[in-house]
Specification:
Distance between the termini: 19 Å
Helix content: 25-40%
Number of helices: 4
Structural class: alpha/beta
Largest sheet: 4 strands, parallel
Shape: globular
Strand content: 5-15%
Number of strands: 4
Radius of gyration: 14 Å
């Protein structure tokens, strides 16, 4: 069993399981009835999405230092009790079920999902090793 970290809207991988959207907002212009069939997500879970200011900081990041500041801010947000409990829950579930978490960003390296991948691993999740 494993958790995969994916780009929402991308084709699903075999064995990916339930797709969880860790984003602040649903996809624009997509009817709710097409979220799953369009490979966006099966369940929306904004608890693990970065806050609006953190998103802006990350999107504006040009240098590695600026991106690191955004990643640190997201980590701080994820240390709040509700977010930390959600990460712990997903880490535990990854040892018993296949599922995926994701975001819309094109490149994982400059997206909160890279930090979420690390957080899940740090909490003992079985994380698929292909960065996307």
């Amino acid at each position: 069993m494993v958790v995969r970290v994916v780009k929402l809207g991308s084709p699903r991988s075999a064995g990916e399981g339930l797709r969880i959207g860790t984003v602040r907002r649903p996809p624009r212009g997509v009817p709710r009835s097409e979220f799953a069939s369009g490979n966006w997500y099966d369940v929306w879970f904004p608890t693990l999405a970065p806050g609006a200011d953190t998103v802006k900081l990350g999107q504006a990041a040009i240098t590695p230092a600026q991106w690191s500041a955004s990643a640190r801010r997201y980590r701080a947000e994820m240390s709040a009790p509700q977010a930390r409990q959600a990460i712990e829950l997903l880490a535990a579930l990854s040892r018993h079920s296949d599922f995926s978490v994701g975001c819309y960003c094109e490149h994982e390296a400059r997206c909160h999902r890279s930090v979420l991948r690390a957080l899940l691993s740090e909490h003992g999740a079985a994380v698929h090793d292909d960065a996307g």
